[in-house]
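Students often ask why we bother encoding 3D structure as a string. The short answer is that it lets us treat folding as translation between two languages. Here is a chain of 117 residues written in the first language.
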Amino acid sequence: MVELRAAYPGVVSDSNGFGLLSFRGISVLLNNSTVDGADNNQAYFSEERGRTRASYSVSQAAVQEFQVNASNYSAEYGRAAGGVINTVTRSGSNQYHGELFFTTATITWVPKTPTPR
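And here it is in the second language, the structure alphabet:
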């Protein structure tokens, strides 16, 4: 989802390789991340929970939508000088269902004989 959020004007990925986002050139530490409107920020590191530290994430299958507010947002979003990102999760149902995700690499990308170092 970082790729989708970074598609907004004035949003760039931080150059440190952690995938943190900078809005309008403002520090990545001044963003606010919420899940269903609830706080999703680490108090000590001042970044989204689990971003570069402990593993924590919302499954892509559980996300219904996400909202990116880069500037001129109302006071209800507050607590941020940078951007505000709100992730809205899907609600449940009484029916069983599931999704399957997988990644694959083309075998032609793998060398036929390993090269010694």
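Translate back mentally: The beta strands are 11-13, 21-23, 32-35, 38-39, 63-69, 84-89. Keep this in mind for the problem set.
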